[in-house]
């Protein structure tokens, strides 16, 4: 990625941006202000990882702010995918930033190692809570991850006491966000689901740090935003993971939730 320059023209007035991206010195796209703190939290977490020379996948990339950030941090190759990719905005930003990030209109469920290869770092921001099949989405990401790779997941989380692993699945107007937001893990629910897929959560941080154990009946559902850093769990092999999800009781038995063999 080249340095920012004043030579870039302003984006066309009819372009609508999701991300707030600096495309010239002191010049920013007019993204959604509500998502800026979330993106900032993800960017801060990305700064703790080593992107130098890495192959990176950004799933649910939107305008590509995190794809461009991965490139800025030294990634050798970055692929940004989104089911509803805004081609005009990614085209403008790629040109303005002198970027080599590649973008493609793809669905997370259709990504495969055979077609897409393996990645050193996978970003899964702001997508999981929109999926009616969130475990399958996580499985697709896990299958694309190198054995020594890192998966960064950011999602809306149901903020409770974390006494039990939970997945909240509202429909329609019952969603605390809007109708397409239908899968809210609490933190323990995500950690244990990741574990069942052979992923270990090594760190996590939340934006608001809500911890409401028993909200009033008429209170809105407490929803936070949380970033999880996951790595492939060396204590859980692919055969065990596959047998667990296939219900194959004749194969190796899965570990219990404490990470020990049953």
- Strand content range: 15-25%
Helical stretch count? 7
Structural class by helix and strand composition: alpha/beta
User: How far from one another are the termini?
Assistant: 50 Å
Task: State the major sheet.
Answer: 7 strands, mixed
Q: Please provide the ordered H/E string of secondary-structure elements.
A: EEHEHEHEHEHEEEHEEH
Number of domains: 1
Poorly predicted tracts of residues:
257-262
Overall pLDDT metric: 89
Mind telling me the C-alpha Rg?
19 Å
Output the CATH topology.
Rossmann fold
Helical content class: 10-25%
Give the overall shape, derived from the CA principal axes: globular
Q: What is the topology, as strand order, of the major beta sheet?
A: 5-4-3-6-7-11-10
CATH superfamily assignment? Answer: Vaccinia Virus protein VP39
């Amino acid at each position: 990625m080249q340095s920012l320059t004043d030579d870039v023209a302003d984006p066309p007035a009819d372009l609508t941006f999701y991300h707030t991206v600096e495309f010239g010195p002191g010049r920013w796209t007019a993204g959604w202000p509500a998502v800026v703190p979330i993106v900032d939290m993800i960017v801060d977490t990305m700064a703790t990882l080593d992107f130098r020379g890495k192959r990176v996948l950004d799933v649910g990339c939107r305008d590509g702010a995190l794809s461009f950030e991965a490139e800025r941090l030294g990634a050798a190759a970055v692929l940004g995918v989104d089911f509803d990719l805004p081609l005009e905005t990614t085209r403008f930003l790629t040109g303005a930033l002198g970027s080599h990030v590649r973008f493609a209109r793809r669905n997370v469920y259709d990504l495969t190692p055979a077609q897409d290869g393996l990645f050193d770092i996978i970003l899964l921001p702001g997508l999981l809570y929109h999926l009616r099949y969130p475990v399958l989405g996580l499985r697709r990401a896990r299958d694309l991850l190198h054995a020594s790779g890192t998966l960064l997941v950011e999602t809306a989380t149901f903020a409770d006491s974390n006494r039990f692993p939970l997945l909240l699945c509202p429909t329609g107007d019952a969603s605390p966000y809007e109708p397409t937001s239908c899968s809210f893990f609490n933190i323990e629910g995500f950690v244990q689901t990741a574990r069942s897929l052979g992923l270990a959560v090594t760190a996590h941080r939340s934006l608001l740090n809500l911890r409401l154990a028993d909200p009033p009946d008429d209170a809105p559902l407490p929803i936070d935003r949380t970033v999880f850093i996951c790595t492939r769990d060396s204590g859980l092999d692919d055969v065990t993971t596959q047998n667990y999800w296939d219900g194959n009781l004749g194969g190796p038995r899965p570990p219990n939730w404490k990470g020990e063999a049953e």
